[in-house]
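Practice problem 4.
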């Protein structure tokens, strides 16, 4: 399993939200590049970045921050947050991003999503944000009538390889992750699943690794020192001592 330390950006700062609520924000740093470098020093190969300004605005206000991380580290970066046009996808892919995560647009515009998957292949990942079994959109402000399973089935059919699955009710709450959801998805679909939202202890990491998940995103747990990144990476690689 791969570990994806997370950097969420607002106004160029490193922040975390509680359950996706923009009014419940904690700032953890003003220099995202130095945070990324610290993750790299601790053995990270991947980095999960969310442009929370972009998620609201549908633009790329933190693009230069992301580019500086790509240019100044060896981290493989995936980026999400407000990516709703091919122009933005191309901009990030050309900048060296490993994967561009489509969220709201994937649920609302399946034709566009299908076209982008055909054109950009594995550079496209889909963010599957779940609230009570249904897909949430628009920075988690709306919940659709599309069930998680129906959505994943469609994604599999159009050739999507990687999904980043977040249980919103768990995200940033430090109450543990939704193992049942990830187990069900991994058993039912031939997708690389990255578990996100509420991974708050080494025990969560161990359980996800045993389920053969493709990846797990660590956010608030790293910033509050609830999880040691080096230990998590060792466990994920099956090198637990």
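Answer key:
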């Amino acid at each position: 399993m791969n570990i994806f330390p997370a950097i969420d950006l607002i106004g160029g700062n490193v922040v975390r939200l509680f359950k996706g609520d923009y009014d419940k924000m904690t700032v953890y740093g003003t220099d995202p590049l130095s945070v990324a470098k610290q993750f790299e020093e601790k053995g990270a190969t991947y980095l999960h970045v969310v442009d929370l300004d972009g998620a609201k605005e549908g633009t790329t206000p933190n693009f230069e921050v992301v580019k500086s991380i790509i240019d100044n580290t060896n981290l493989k970066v995936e980026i999400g947050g407000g990516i709703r046009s091919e122009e933005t996808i191309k901009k990030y892919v050309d900048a060296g991003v490993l994967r561009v995560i489509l969220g709201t647009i994937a649920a609302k515009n399946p034709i566009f999503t299908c076209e982008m998957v055909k054109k950009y292949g594995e550079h496209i990942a889909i963010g599957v944000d779940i609230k009570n079994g249904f897909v949430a959109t628009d920075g988690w402000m709306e919940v659709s009538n599309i069930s998680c399973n129906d959505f994943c089935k469609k994604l599999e059919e159009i050739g999507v390889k990687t999904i980043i699955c977040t249980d919103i009710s768990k995200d940033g709450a430090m109450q543990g992750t939704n193992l049942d959801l990830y187990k069900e998805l991994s058993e039912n679909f031939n997708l690389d699943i990255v578990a996100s939202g509420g991974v708050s202890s080494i025990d969560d990491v161990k359980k996800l690794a045993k389920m053969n998940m493709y990846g797990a995103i660590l956010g608030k747990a790293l910033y509050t020192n609830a999880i040691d990144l080096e230990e998590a990476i060792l466990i994920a690689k099956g090198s637990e001592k």
